[in-house]
Specification:
The chain has ten helices and two strands, in the order αααααββααααα. α3 crosses α5, α8 crosses α9 and α8 packs antiparallel against α10. The longest helix is centred in the last third of the chain and has 26 residues. It is globular. The two termini are about 20 Å apart.
């Protein structure tokens, strides 16, 4: 299979498990994203004011301190990088399908059977920092902030503390948000598409 075709092939469950295991392994830096956070982060790149090239965001997958994984070999580095880019391209296809088929990758509180959206939301908001100036327009706009506020509140420790002080059930809030993300995320994407001519969006590519 040609390299370009390999990078657009959706990840299998086995490959998702492999990527998740590597992200949480001792080979990855301590601040590396987990799979849920990574999907949120990649989603922000795809639905924002413009789509940056992977070189602009790839290093943040491993943390904000410039650390990199302890690769066993160049082949392993290329393989894991390709899995990340395939996840990125898979998300792109899900978000651009009609209707969108996006589903967030979230964890579950097995005791209460509630979805946990915090890591996904952390990743999404970190993703907005790649183009903080561009995203600011949404944060300053009444319609925009209404769309992104639940994600922002889920990721923000002060907002979570305020909700808890008000007697809100944070776990239920996260569960309800996870259920709403398949509608919220395409709406955020539409918000940006409606405000400017769609730029020429470059596909994901290996570094």
């Amino acid at each position: 299979m040609a390299k370009d075709q390999e990078l657009i092939a959706p990840l299998t469950e086995t490959e998702l498990d492999e990527l998740a295991s590597f992200l949480e392994s001792d080979a990855s830096p301590e601040q590396a994203m987990d799979l849920s956070m990574l999907q949120g982060f990649l989603t922000a790149q795809l639905v924002g004011p413009e789509e940056p090239l992977p070189d602009a965001w790839f290093g943040l997958v491993w943390g904000e301190n410039g650390e990199r994984p302890k690769w066993e070999s160049p082949a392993q580095q290329e393989h894991i990088g390709d899995l990340i880019l395939r996840l990125y391209n898979q998300l792109s296809d899900e978000l651009r399908s009609e209707p969108p088929t996006f589903t967030p990758m979230v964890y579950q509180d097995e005791e209460r059977q509630l979805d946990i959206a915090q890591q996904w939301c952390y990743g999404f908001m970190l993703g907005t920092s790649v183009n903080a100036e561009g995203w600011q327009e949404m944060l300053d706009d009444d319609d925009g902030i209404e769309l992104i506020a639940p994600i922002l509140d889920c990721a923000d420790d002060e907002a979570r503390a305020s909700m808890e002080e008000a007697g809100d059930d944070i776990a239920q809030f996260e569960h309800d948000l996870a259920a709403a993300l398949p509608e919220i995320v395409p709406a955020i994407h539409a918000y940006w598409l409606d405000r400017a001519p769609a730029p020429k969006r470059a596909p994901g590519r290996r570094r």
